[in-house]
Amino acid sequence: MKGRFMTPGKILKEGHQMKVTYTRKGDYLFPNLTIDEEPAVIGKYGMLRRTFLKENRKNWYQSMLLTGKLEKHLEEIDRTADEQ
């Protein structure tokens, strides 16, 4: 990709386009992003699992965090531990 630049709105993976609007503040452009859902409430065992993943499974932790699967995983761990 030498000499090519990716700009907002360029075609992404699987042919989807990213449509992002920006707000200018001084010399900077900030993306107008919103969070669709409320943050998950994670109990003791979910927090313990998060700490374990951060310290011992860094790649897995980062992957789940970046794909948005971490919170759901931690909720499931916490729910399963509470049921036992």
Kindly describe this structure.
- The protein is mainly alpha-helical.
- The protein has a domain at 44-83.
- It is built from 3 helices and 2 strands; from the N terminus they run ββααα.
- It has helices at residues 44-56, 58-67, 70-83, and strands at 22-25, 28-31.
- A hairpin with a 2-residue loop joins β1 and β2.
- The longest helix is centred in the C-terminal third of the chain and has 14 residues, at 70-83.
- The mean pLDDT is 82.
> How far do the termini sit from each other?
52 Å
Given helix and strand content, the structural type is mainly alpha
Order of helices and strands: EEHHH
- Shape, principal axes of CA atoms: elongated
Strand content: 5-15%
Uncertain residue segments: none
Strand order of the largest sheet: 1-2
Number of helices: 3
Tell me about the largest β-sheet: 2 strands, antiparallel
- Provide the residue-averaged pLDDT: 82
Number of strands: 2
Gyration radius, in Å: 18 Å
The level of helicity is: 40-55%
